[in-house]
Amino acid sequence: MTAAVDRDAALHALRKRGSTLKKWAKDEGYGYRNASNVIRGTSRAHFGEGREIAEKLNKLIQETNNV
Question: InterPro entries from the xrefs (predicted)?
Answer without folding.
Answer: BcepMu_gp16 (IPR026365)
